[in-house]
Amino acid sequence: MKVILLNAGMGKRLGYLTQNNPKCLVKIKEKETILDYQLKQLIKSNLKDIIITTGPFEDKIKKYIKLNYPTLKMHYVHNPIYDKTNYIYTIYLIKEIIDDDVILLHGDLIFSDNLLRDILNSKDPNCVLVNREIVPPEKDFKAIIIDEKIIQIGVNISRPNSVFLAPLYKLSNKFFKIWLDQINKFVKDNRVDCYAEDALNAILDKIVLKPFYFNNKICKEIDDINDLKLIQRLLKGNNKSKLI
């Protein structure tokens, strides 16, 4: 199984923290970055075949990993137009090197380590993290679920039955190739500033993506300073047990 870590974004909403560094190297603890946290969770689950997509400060990411994780098998895919495209184009760039099932996750996710273990052990070959118990934040992904199948994913979903979705996917190679084919169509039409999930929505009536519920656990994107402060509090405070 391959892991795809999406790290080509600019992280502008973190302000000064990403002016001279990639978002994944923002510290969540004194001696731990977002990237450290994710790689440690992946290693715990014996996931060591990792594709990291890069945008700004690619050299800093490579140097950091070489220094701190010299034994990991890493593949780097650079998006040279990261400032003009969304990650739909970044995923398009990796299409030639995917030959296995995948774990796909955004490079700013902090999640309970048992979440990764649990989704790997799920009987469903194609699933994504969903939580019905929290109110979906306006800025985050949401899903519409009918008959325990996801029929739509997006940020700007306003339907009252939408639920919170965290962009950590477990996908079979067959499923991912179908998604990649649709992404390829979007790129050919120059639709490169939208979400990759927009391409996925176009085919969810033909393939089955199941929700994997993570109620009472944590999986959160660090989009801005408020998110970062929340994660830092969780790592230090009484809710730390939900993260480790």
From TrEMBL:
GO function term, MF aspect, one: nucleotidyltransferase activity
Keywords of the record: Nucleotidyltransferase, Transferase
InterPro entries, sorted: GlmU-like (IPR050065), NTP_transferase_dom (IPR005835), Nucleotide-diphossugar_trans (IPR029044)
Nucleotidyl transferase domain span: 2-119
SUPFAM superfamilies, sorted: Nucleotide-diphospho-sugar transferases
Residue ranges crossing the lipid bilayer per the database entry: none
Pfam families for the chain: NTP_transferase
UniProt name for this protein: Nucleotidyl transferase domain-containing protein
Organism: marine sediment metagenome
